[in-house]
């Protein structure tokens, strides 16, 4: 969980300091924990030793599609694990990527200054960030639980900008089918652009009042996607600032001085948009399957997990 990206900190440093927490936020249990199996997965990018978080349900067996989650600027916390567990409850596997390395303390207790110090070397240097992002994808492709040709990547804030870098770095290679960046930062890259002819689907889920998202950068991002002729979407949620999916953040009340805040309507709408996108990209069009059926273990229309997910 985090409050913001770097740009936002610059804008409202003192309110953020007032919100500083020392322990991780307890996310609600919106899945059936009796079938969720989780573990850490060690991997590496060069000399950097990394430790991802893997979650899946043992109510079904065999390989399944995977959603990779790239963390925001405080690294891996309960927020990212929560999202991975939600994907697990839907029949997918969720994998939280490690960007900073297991040698670094991660989570909400990291002071804001430290978060910037951790994030900026990646954000300012796509040559450094892209291999780190790819390391998670390559690791997921080695997992027995993974359907290696059905992988989608999402990210939040720093990680939301990161998945666009991933798409730029992995334009036309089997495995990854698409990416979605939530309250992403930044939209554009100083590195190589999205390559023409890539089959990837690229989505942004953004707050219309996010002060870190300039109109120019939105135009540039859309132009980049058009030039590459990828399938893309820019979801722009009204009355929404930065970090709108973070349940522990104060609800945004329209105060223009506050650049971060939870927005339940935007969180829910963007979550269900993603769920639809996943059914489409993973080609789960068979409505008798476990993802959508009335009789499935994780039926989100009638099942217990599904009923709870309605509020996520
Ligand atoms: C599934 O995982 C849960 C939680 O880890 C565990 O309690 C249960 O025994 C597992 N069931 C099977 C069939 O492996
Ligand atoms: C934050 O950064 C300072 C200066 O580099 C360092 O001394 C401190 O240990 C860091 N704290 C955490 C929690 O990472
Ligand atoms: C950017 O990252 C690359 C790859 O790690 C590294 O070789 C290069 O020195 C970095 N550039 C800067 C300015 O730090
Ligand atoms: C863009 O992609 C579509 C389908 O993905 C394809 O039919 C079309 O020819 C492409 N256009 C260009 C200019 O490459
Ligand atoms: C916003 O900040 C300005 C300048 O500090 C201040 O005058 C104004 O009262 C603030 N508005 C709110 C709603 O907090
Ligand atoms: C749809 O999925 C169900 C459950 O996995 C399977 O039994 C059925 O054969 C599938 N139907 C088609 C047309 O693939």
Could you characterize the architecture of this molecule?
One of its GO terms (molecular function) is hydrolase activity. Residues 51-273 form the Dienelactone hydrolase domain. InterPro entries: AB_hydrolase_fold (IPR029058), Dienelactn_hydro (IPR002925), FrsA_esterase (IPR050261). This is Alpha/beta-hydrolase. With 312 residues, the protein is an alpha/beta fold. It has one domain (6-309): 3-Layer(aba) Sandwich (Rossmann fold), CATH 3.40.50.1820. It contains nine helices and eight strands. The protein has helices spanning 6-11, 13-19, 78-89, 112-123, 126-140, 158-169, 215-228, 264-281, 304-309; strands spanning 36-45, 48-57, 64-70, 93-96, 146-156, 176-182, 201-207, 231-237. The protein has an eight-stranded mixed beta sheet with strand order 1-2-4-3-5-6-7-8, sandwiched between helices. α3 links the parallel β3 and β4. The longest helix has 18 residues, at 264-281. The radius of gyration is 18 Å and the shape is globular. It starts with 5 loop residues before the first helix and ends with a helix. 47% of the residues are buried. Residues 6-21 and 286-312 have low confidence and may be disordered. The structure holds 2-acetamido-2-deoxy-beta-D-glucopyranose (6 copies). One 2-acetamido-2-deoxy-beta-D-glucopyranose (NAG) binds at residues 34-35, 37, 58.
């Amino acid at each position: 969980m985090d409050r913001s990206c770097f740009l936002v900190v610059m804008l409202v440093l003192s309110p953020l300091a007032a919100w500083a927490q020392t322990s991780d936020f307890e996310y609600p249990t919106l899945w059936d924990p009796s079938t969720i199996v989780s573990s850490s997965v060690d991997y590496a990018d060069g000399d950097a030793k990394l430790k991802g978080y893997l979650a899946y349900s043992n109510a079904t067996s065999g390989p399944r599609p995977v959603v990779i989650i790239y963390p925001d600027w405080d690294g891996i916390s309960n927020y990212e694990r929560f999202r991975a567990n939600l994907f697990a409850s839907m029949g997918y596997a969720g994998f939280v990527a490690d960007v900073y390395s297991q040698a670094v303390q991660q989570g909400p207790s990291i002071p804001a200054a430290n978060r910037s110090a951790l994030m900026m070397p990646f954000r300012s240097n796509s040559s450094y960030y892209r291999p780190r992002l790819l390391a998670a994808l390559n690791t997921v492709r080695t997992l027995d639980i993974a359907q290696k040709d059905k992988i989608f990547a999402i990210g939040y804030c720093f990680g939301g900008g990161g998945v666009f870098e991933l798409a730029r770095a992995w334009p036309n290679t089997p495995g990854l089918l698409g990416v979605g960046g939530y309250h992403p930062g930044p939209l554009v890259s100083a590195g190589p652009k999205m390559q023409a002819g890539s089959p990837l689907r690229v989505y942004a889920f953004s707050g219309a009042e996010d002060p870190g998202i300039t109109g120019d950068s939105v135009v540039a991002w859309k132009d980049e996607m058009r030039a590459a002729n990828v399938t893309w979407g820019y979801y722009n949620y009204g009355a929404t600032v930065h970090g709108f999916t973070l349940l522990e953040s104060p609800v945004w009340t329209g105060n223009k001085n506050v650049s971060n805040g939870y927005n339940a309507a935007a969180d829910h709408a963007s979550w269900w948009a993603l769920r639809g996108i996943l059914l489409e990209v993973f080609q789960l069009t068979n409505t008798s399957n476990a993802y959508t059926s009335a009789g499935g273990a994780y039926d989100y229309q009638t099942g217990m997990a599904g009923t709870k997910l309605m509020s996520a």
